[in-house]
Amino acid sequence: MATFARRAAITPAAERPGAGLWSNAWYRLRRDRLTMAAFAILLVLVLVSISAPLLAQFVFQFRFEQQNLLRAYGTPTLDPPAYLLGADELGRSQVVRLLYGGQVSLFVGFVGALVNLTIGVVVGLTAGYLRGRTDDVITWFITTLNSIPLLFLLLIISAVFSPNALTLTLTIGLLFWTGISLYVRGQTFALREREFVVAARTIGATTSRIMFRHILPNVLPLIFVLAAIDVGGIILAESALSYLGLGITPPTPSWGNMLSNAVSYSVRAWWLVVSPGAMIFLTVLSLYLIGDGLRDALDPRLKTH
After folding, report:
1. What is the pLDDT of residues 177-224, one digit of tens each?
2. Which of 72, 170, 203, 255 lies 20 to 30 Å from 239 when distance is taken between CA atoms?
3. Neighbouring C-beta atoms of residue 157, cutoff 10 Å
4. Which residues pair with 87 in a beta bridge?
5. What are phi and psi of 49, to 5 degrees?
6. Which residues, at least 6 apart from 83, have a Cβ–Cβ distance to it below 8 Å?
7. 238 to each of 69, 90, 97, 210, 234, how far by Cα in Å?
């Protein structure tokens, strides 16, 4: 009796009769304060990073590469506002470099995730739907790629090619797709024998139409969850490579190489470590919370509550 009462109490918040998947998901998300707060924080970080040139010119009146050796290791101050978060070893504005660094780090994260999602979804759908020899070859390739320690592979590629932001983004995107591909492959196995897919084959629908018009929409909701988590993982990977000196190379700022540079003089200017570390922490935490919230909102099993 108590279980029935609990289910009756949460049903209105979990699902609205007659509403579609996306409508119900948005209904749940709006009532998930933690996820909405994470969305708001991420949105602010993205907008502030995009506005970096305007803020640097009209608010801080300082370029990200501009130096002032008399201000080297300067403590945080509002006089002038450009040194709100202090100055680095060359007297450059930490807050301005942080804004421009956000452009690079977020670009690497979001574009890298887009690349590996595209590859992973296409490969996973192909392997799961065609099966047979095609699936065997793709599975063998994924297993071989997964057997290579990813960090070492990234270190080798970064050391050989000295990548800029674009090449590093493409490299990470081309290496991080295997997990998503295996997930999509497993979901496709389960969906390819469903009645609506059999009906589509019966009326003569092409293979590509069945994969992308019938199977993909059923896999897409939970792919968004993986995408949110994936962006955070890529930002951490870029930060780790930059920390090791093999990521985005100075003078182009990124949160990773700013943190790497600041660690070497953390005793003398500890505040320079805090700001890039806080930006990485907030971004990754927000993305993980968004991914967790999306999973709860899009999970079909919640409809049984």
Report:
1. 888 899 899 989 888 888 888 898 888 888 888 888 888 888 887 788
2. 72
3. 19
4. 93
5. -65, -40
6. 71, 74, 76, 77, 93, 94, 95
7. 29, 24, 17, 37, 6
